[in-house]
Write a structure and sequence with these properties.
Length: 755
Amino acid sequence: MHQAASHIIVIELAPPDEAVPRIKLLTSSAAAFLGYTEQELIGSPVDLIYAAEHDKVLWRAALADVIAGKEREPGAASFACDILTKTKRKIRAFISLGLLSPRTAYKTDIVLLIQDKPTDSAEDLSTKSALAESEERFRQMAEMTGEWLWEQDPDGYYSYSSTAVTQILGYRQEEVLGKHYTEFLAPQDKADQQRYVTSRRPFYALLSHYRHKDGRQILTESTGLPIIDGEGKLLKWRGVDRDITARMHFQDALIESEKRIRLIIDSSLSAIVIMDAYGIVIDWNRPAEKIFGWSKEEAIGQRLDQLIIPPAQRDAHRRALGHFLRTGFGPFINRLIEQTAIRRDGTEFPVELNFSPLKQGNTYIFSGFIHDITERKRLEHRFQQAVESAPNAIVMVNKTGTIEMVNSQTETSFGYSRTELVGQPVEILVPERFREAHTGFRQAYLAAPVSRPMGVGQELYGLRKDGTEFPVEIGLSLIDSKEETLVLSTIVDITTRKATEAAIRQAQINLAIAQSEIKIAQRIQASLSPSAPIKSNHFEVTGYCLPADQVGGDYFDYFYRDENHLDMIIADVSGHSIGPALFMVETRSAIRTQAGGLGTPAKTLNILNNFLFEDLDKSDYFITLFYLQYDLSNHQLSFANAGHPPPLLLSSFQSECRQLDADGLILGVYKNVVFEEKITTLSEGDLILLYTDGLTEAENADGEFFGLKRVNDILAEHGQETPQTIIDALLEQLKQFCGSESFNDDITLMVFKRN
């Protein structure tokens, strides 16, 4: 006998049972064995791995054994077959099936253990022995991976930890074993994640905040699966944590960097010129208009060398550009250089410039920052002799408040290079709240110039390039000549005592921004939902949304597509605040744009999915949506689903609801998704409840879900009443059940009733 290499795939079996199950999770070794990436297989039908139809027959028989609870019987729930790889290569393998979680009315997780080199007696292997072998393989893989793999007992205490915990959290394995998982969580996660140990439900890519042994905060993506035996008993938890601290910090830093860059470009007093790889101007700011004499409209679309480079230097410019495009190197790229430029009137003058390339796809654009240094050249020598060696920051400005020269200590104190300061207003060194007053003080000084301290009796502050402030003392002196009037400022850093106050002010600013975003999102969300019910002699429809926070991610709508068709939609965007609210605006706009056409629910979902795909693919959000269309002439209801909880239909002559469901992925997973569309006929008195999962998944103090059974009973009891009365009854009993007026998730309800 020889050792068999094993691989694990987890599938999700959702009703109806005859539907082809799809792959939910798999080990990296399973993906490599089949020749795919993990992302290619997740969500795909499991049938694609079987080489022939008779192999699929064996698979379905084994699956039936698991569904019937026979997987522990000798020879049941296992079979030998040919596995088909991505490259169409057949591999003989032995497969054992077992339940990973208790079977429910909605979905069941099933594990497939694949052995690619079965022994001669493989046909007689039991699922129990195969899974026992996988336990040892799991521990071996845990020691080889850089991710933290762990096991916990049913109460959440660690019973196994891979050595990666030392790298991620700084603790040795023995320091973790026997400890409850919440002991290592940061305070903000202790309460939120306490519920997972009792939920018996798997969780995926959960953002967790851990406290490193040295006190640092560590961010991870946590995935955990409950291991449950055939009798429904929770045996243990198994999971993995991936350290994403560096990635999250990088993303935050990148966002802040982009904001600063945009602010500099929008408020810059320097000439900023952007050209494409052909040397054609594609952007030209206002200072460039003033320096060179060409308006933005005149400059864009013209060759840059024809606008600002003297004729004698144009060939060299073109050769340098071509050399960079061929080799990636150039003498004038990413370097601060002094050159001669030409104005529209033909006059030449010295400039300081820097051109930087930015690759976009297979080509480049080049951004240039250009300063007119005519006056600086004239004053530079005189100023350097007088002040360059001074121990304090010295800044020379002209009568308009523009910086003419600075010394090296100014660069040290404020964090700018002199090329970044020269030509800028001196207020760049003054905190924003003092700038308007500073302009008045500067003009008053020029009206009565006397060498003296500035701001006697006041606290003065300087502003560094990095945004930090520091208290200063400033002395003013006048340099007057026939040519111009200059003011020399001597600036001394006196203390850092305002650091705490600055931090408080910044926190207040951040709070104001957050509150503003919430108000904006509230207004956006309020504008999405219909303002009133729709009532007629034949039907009535109304809805209500109760957000968990100040802003929710739910949305509902109903409107006449034409005189014979009523469209109804309910959707749920993951998350809260301004992001989900904006996605709902985009979704509603796309739906309403299609309202004038003849689209069916399935076609509308297909168009909507393709329209939102790019935005959703680039974000961390997803959308579930259910779409119904009621034909008033024949009372037929067409519907399609994009991963949303199925609505409930209660007939007037029945006491049990049935679910309206159709196959369809959540929006934004793939392009060109085909959504199943179904049709049913409504009788008089029939009513439909559309809801988001915040209703059924609301929990009471004992951790019990409100559930579909309670919803069904409430609908049966109040089915003869109006839609609004039904909604009121649902909310009232939900609040009584939870013992609260607020909930952890958004709750949205919509009721349609045929009269």
